[in-house]
Specification:
Blueprint (H helix, E strand, L loop, with lengths): L2 E3 L6 E5 L5 E5 L13 E3 L1 E3 L8 E4 L15 E6 L5 E6 L3 E8 L8 E8 L12 E6 L6 E3 L13 E7 L8 E6 L5 E10 L2 E11 L6 E3 L8 E3 L3 E3 L12 E3 L12
Antiparallel strand pairs: 1-4, 2-3, 5-6, 6-7, 7-8, 9-10, 10-11, 11-12, 13-14, 14-15, 15-16, 17-18, 18-19, 19-20
């Protein structure tokens, strides 16, 4: 997903009236907490507590953790299904991107992230620039699940992160990029087992920005990676095979991410 300023979080309900009129009704009670600082972040929308209502997840902006703000760690805004969200925070780390997916295939949403501020004590959630945690279906219960992850390639400034089964083996892998104005690297971790990940740097010097998306760009039923100006073609041999780079525009002047 792309990066967005935290203060822009404001879900709305769209209703359609006669003659095609559209009414926007804000549904953001509770999203004003915690107090934020500044900078971009990445938001994910998923039913974290499995109650049928979509919740919001983030690892915060530059203020996470506790930098001129009340942000810290994994932040989940649980949607009560009406007009309100309740905030739950776990850990002392943040500022970066995250992705929701079922890492251990138990049917419960889990979380992976790439961050700047790995300030958590050693052995706790958020003590690495790349991390992951298993959810328990509540929104506030998370178990560290990153043994063997962040074993190379990651650097200060990890940001946009996504989960996808790039090698089509049935489990989720992680891709993440740095947030640097003058280009950055793109890193991939293949999930080999619950305690083992294999790493590859896919490319360096990628165009400016912080966005990253995953999708089947060439219609061959595997997932490719889209960045600003370029996309990388998956050959399914994700650790040793080629990832051809294709341009979808000849210029890219946007400083961050564009939808």
């Amino acid at each position: 997903m792309g990066g967005f300023p935290m203060f822009m979080v404001a879900p709305v309900l769209l209703t359609f009236g006669l003659a095609g009129a559209v009414t926007l009704v804000e549904k953001s009670n509770g999203l004003q907490f915690p107090e934020r600082e500044a900078g971009h972040t990445e938001l994910e929308v998923a039913d974290i507590d499995l109650d049928g209502h979509l919740d919001i997840v983030s690892v915060g902006d530059h203020g996470n953790p506790f930098v001129n703000s009340d942000e810290h760690g994994i932040m989940v805004w649980i949607n009560d299904g009406s007009d309100s969200f309740a905030l739950y925070q776990t850990g002392e780390f943040g500022y970066g991107g995250c992705a929701v997916g079922d890492l251990d295939l138990d049917g419960v949403p889990d979380l992976a992230w790439g961050i700047h501020h790995d300030y958590a004590p050693a052995g706790q959630i958020g003590d690495k620039l790349m991390g992951a945690a298993l959810g328990d279906g509540t929104g506030w219960g998370w178990t560290q699940w990153d043994t063997g992850l962040a074993s190379g390639g990651e650097d200060w400034g990890m940001f946009a992160t996504d989960l996808a089964d790039f090698d089509l083996d049935g489990d989720l892998d992680i891709v993440s990029r740095e947030q640097l104005a003058d280009g950055a690297s793109l890193q991939l971790w293949r999930q080999d087992s619950p305690t083992a990940w294999s790493h590859r740097t896919l490319t360096t010097g990628i165009p400016v920005g912080e966005g990253l998306e995953v999708g089947d760009m060439d219609g061959d039923h595997d997932l490719d990676i889209v960045l600003g100006r370029i996309w990388l073609q998956n050959s399914q041999d994700i650790l040793t095979g080629p990832w051809p780079i294709h341009n979808y525009t000849s210029t890219w002047t946007h400083p961050h991410v564009v939808v």
